[in-house]
Write a structure and sequence with these properties.
Layout (H helix, E strand, L loop, with lengths): L5 H19 L8 E3 L16 E7 L12 E10 L1 H4 L1 H7 L3 E2 L6 E3 L5 E5 L6 E5 L12 H15 L6 E2 L5 E6 L2 E4 L7 E10 L2 E5 L7 E5 L5 E6 L2 E12 L4 H9 L4 E7 L9 E7 L1 E9 L4 E9 L8 E5 L5
Parallel strand pairs: 2-17, 12-18
Antiparallel strand pairs: 1-16, 3-15, 3-19, 4-5, 5-6, 6-7, 7-14, 8-11, 9-10, 9-11, 11-12, 11-13, 13-14, 16-20, 18-19, 19-20
């Protein structure tokens, strides 16, 4: 069944714009200003839309997270994700019909539930709109996690993905908009799901986004789910190395052995300048990243300046790559 009604085609055109916006405005649910790429040479793709930082220093109180005695490097291959190759099957789960327009869009008749596969980056977005409710009480995170997990099971995309509970983001609804808030005052949660290696989250190249991000609203409904097109097939262990110490990390930063991968402002009217004088790294986490050039999975530190108005994040190898 296809839709040919002109009025409905207009609705679908609006839906397409909305879906595309959801993909490229991810992590800025409140219309934040975000730039997600890198300006270094460690990982690809390299782009030029992130600020240059003149000076990066590590906070005097900075400590590394708990680290194992050794970290591994693995061979790996990049494969299409389930969502990227099964958009039509996912749409069928929700009884959505494919649009007559020449775009990969599926929708219910009134356009309130959609599945959209971006032709540009093959990111898949599920989006649902619900009538506003006076029930905007704070969510129970455990219940929201179960709701998100049930959604993944329903569409068959739950294999080899783990909820990253430490990276859950909290939002407060205000009409049609959502605003970032604290874990003490929220009614929406955004739950990231990632592949893991040795129980450590795995990311693809210089990308900041997880495999899946699910937004659960105050009615315990899935408002949005965004699926990365990538899924990494982990191969054999190639080597093991001791992780860098804090002093070794400081020397690496001094030698410019880092890569900025993300910067954003929660204030929609605040533009990120092209050049920033200095940032102070005050938080470090450990993650694995897939390097498409070497076809390897390599451990990296994710370093962030949470005190900066621009929320700058960068990565640096957690082991020696020499």
């Amino acid at each position: 069944m296809t839709f040919s009604n002109p009025k409905r085609n207009i609705i679908f055109a609006i839906v397409i714009v909305s879906a595309i916006s959801a993909v490229y405005l991810y992590f800025q649910v409140s219309k934040s200003t975000r730039r997600s790429t890198n300006n270094g040479s460690l990982l690809t793709p390299t782009r030029t839309d992130l600020p240059q930082v003149d000076k990066i220093q590590l906070d005097s109180q900075l400590t590394l997270p708990p680290l194992p005695d050794h970290l591994s490097i693995y061979s790996a291959e990049d494969q299409p994700s389930f969502a990227a190759t099964n958009a039509d099957k996912i749409a069928a789960q929700f009884n959505l019909q494919k649009s007559s327009l020449s775009v990969p869009l599926w929708s219910n008749p009134d356009g309130t539930v959609t599945v959209f596969l971006s032709p540009q980056d093959h990111t898949l977005t599920y989006k649902a709109e619900f009538p506003s409710s006076n029930n905007v009480t704070q969510l129970n995170v455990d219940v929201a996690l179960q709701t998100a997990q049930n959604f993944l099971v329903t569409i068959g995309a739950n294999q080899d993905l783990s909820a990253q509970k430490n990276d859950i983001k909290y939002y407060k609804s205000g009409g049609a908009e959502y605003h970032p808030t604290s874990a003490n005052d929220y009614n929406l949660v955004e739950i990231p799901y990632s592949q893991t290696v040795e129980n450590i989250p795995l990311f693809v190249q210089s990308k900041y986004l997880p495999n899946v991000s699910i937004l659960v609203n105050s009615q315990l409904k899935i408002s949005r789910a965004i699926f990365s097109p990538n899924f990494i097939k982990v191969g054999s262990q190639l080597s093991t190395q001791k992780p860098l110490s804090l002093d070794e990390l400081k020397k690496l930063i001094t030698k410019k052995g880092f890569q900025i991968i993300d910067a954003f402002s929660n204030n929609p009217v605040t533009q990120i300048p092209s050049n920033i004088q200095s940032i102070n790294i005050n938080h470090v986490t450990l993650q694995y990243r897939f390097d498409s050039n070497s076809k390897q999975i390599i451990p990296y530190f994710l370093l962030t300046d949470t005190s900066s108005p621009y929320n700058i994040s960068l990565v640096a190898p957690a082991v020696s790559l020499k």
